[in-house]
């Protein structure tokens, strides 16, 4: 049960009354006449082979208010793409499956490469970027929600609560971030949010001084949540990071483009669990190790654009401040776990803090030495200015793939 407390500078929309999902959906169906809605689902083909996505699809068949569902499909062969069209064909809404590895989408990618505008890294950021481009190209929707395909505790109330703030014509929100508690199997999850992001933000405040941006980030209850929604007007100017910094990058863009009274966060689930990444301390290119490095760089980049000057010495100071604050958080979380009857492995928590602190230095060093790095995929406004027909080409490519392979 949530409380009504408003923390920070971003509006919290709580779950105070357990309003029935059917009641929410009745409102959303009414809103859809004025503000049609889309859902974006970035997915690896491997998600189709697991139980989480099967349940998500079953839940979505009951959703009455969506105008379209856009699925970005990565790592799929031709046969797997055909299977995906059949798999998602159970949905009653208008469905478009973007075959990211297909010949037509690769041709779109080549057009972008010729202009230096193509996403440089494979992954969720690239997938989401093309999906949002298709939403723009289709022109069918005015509000968009996005969530992952590995949520094992999914029910359709999550989507209803997530999209409600940007779909309601009586609200002025342009962007909404989902939040939830991360509890499963009698223990706390969400290590990167708990043990990296919040302690790092507090350390940056201490070392770098007061920052409106850091206060803003510190207002989000779950800044790394992969569930968010926005009005389609947001998409044109959005510059999305192509690595694990996606969520922090999106929050940064919202702060840059809109006043905070146009942004909110909403409680979307009592229970939330999804596929867990390994800590991967032995391999910095995988798992939570890579995630922590990418997220740290995303924070450093944004502060640098705000005028912060970094050096090796400052990064060492940030690491020391982070380490002390993160260890204090470990004790706080342990006490919270005990009073709630949850299990808590303090040793593994502190091992994660040690890895994250090492990766802060790695991220800082990479930030200082890689000055030519281009961390963001260009905005669609820039892409359209260079290639005026690109959205038409993108829509045609996706629609032809769906039609051609769906008929075979």
Largest sheet at a glance? 8 strands, mixed
* CATH architecture type: Alpha-Beta Complex
Poorly predicted regions are: none
Give the tally of structural domains: 1
Beta-strand residue fraction: 5-15%
CATH superfamily: Spore Coat Polysaccharide Biosynthesis Protein SpsA, Chain A
What is the helix tally?
A: 14
Question: How is the largest sheet built, in terms of strand order?
Answer: 1-11-6-9-5-2-3-4
Percentage of residues assigned to helices: 40-55%
Give the helices and strands as they follow along the chain.
Answer: EHEHEHEHHEHEEEHHEEHEHHHEHH
The tally of strands reads 12
Q: What is the CATH topology assignment? A: Spore Coat Polysaccharide Biosynthesis Protein SpsA, Chain A
- Spatial separation of the terminal alpha carbons: 50 Å
InterPro entries: Nucleotide-diphossugar_trans (IPR029044)
Keywords: Transferase
Protein name: Glycosyl transferase
GO molecular function: transferase activity
């Amino acid at each position: 049960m949530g409380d009504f407390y408003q923390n920070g500078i971003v509006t919290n929309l709580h779950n105070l009354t357990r309003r029935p999902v059917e009641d929410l959906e009745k409102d959303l169906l009414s809103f859809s006449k004025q503000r049609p809605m889309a859902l974006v689902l970035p997915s690896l083909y491997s998600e189709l082979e697991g139980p989480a996505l099967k349940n998500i699809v079953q839940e979505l068949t009951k959703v009455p208010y969506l105008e379209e569902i856009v699925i970005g499909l990565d790592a799929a062969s031709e046969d797997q793409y055909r299977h995906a069209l059949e798999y998602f064909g159970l949905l009653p809404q208008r469905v478009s499956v973007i075959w990211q590895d297909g010949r037509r989408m690769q041709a779109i990618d080549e057009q972008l490469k010729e202009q230096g505008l193509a996403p440089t890294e494979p992954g969720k950021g690239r997938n989401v970027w093309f999906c949002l481009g298709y939403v723009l190209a289709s022109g069918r929707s005015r509000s968009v929600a996005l969530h992952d395909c590995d949520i094992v505790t999914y029910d359709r109330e999550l989507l209803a609560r997530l999209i409600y703030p940007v779909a309601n014509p009586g609200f002025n929100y342009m962007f909404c971030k989902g939040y939830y508690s991360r509890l499963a199997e009698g223990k706390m999850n969400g290590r990167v949010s708990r043990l990296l992001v919040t302690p790092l933000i507090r350390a940056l405040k201490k070392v770098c001084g007061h920052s409106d941006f850091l206060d803003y980030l510190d207002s989000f209850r779950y800044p790394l949540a992969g569930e968010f929604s926005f009005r389609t007007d947001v998409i044109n100017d959005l510059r999305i990071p192509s690595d694990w910094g996606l969520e922090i990058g999106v929050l940064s863009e919202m702060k840059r483009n809109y006043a905070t009274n146009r942004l909110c966060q909403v409680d979307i689930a009592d229970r939330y669990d999804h596929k867990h990444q390994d800590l991967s301390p032995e391999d910095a290119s995988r798992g939570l190790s890579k995630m922590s490095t990418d997220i740290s760089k995303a924070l450093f980049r944004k502060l640098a654009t705000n005028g912060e000057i970094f050096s090796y010495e400052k990064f060492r100071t940030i690491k020391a401040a982070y380490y002390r604050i993160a260890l204090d958080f470990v004790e706080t979380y342990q006490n919270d776990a005990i009073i709630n009857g949850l299990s808590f492995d303090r040793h593994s928590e502190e091992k994660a803090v040690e890895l994250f602190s090492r990766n802060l230095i790695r991220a800082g060093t990479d930030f200082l030495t890689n000055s030519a790095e281009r961390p963001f995929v260009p905005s669609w406004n820039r892409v359209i200015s260079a290639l005026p027909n690109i959205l038409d080409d993108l829509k045609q490519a996706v629609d032809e793939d769906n039609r051609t392979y769906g008929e075979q």
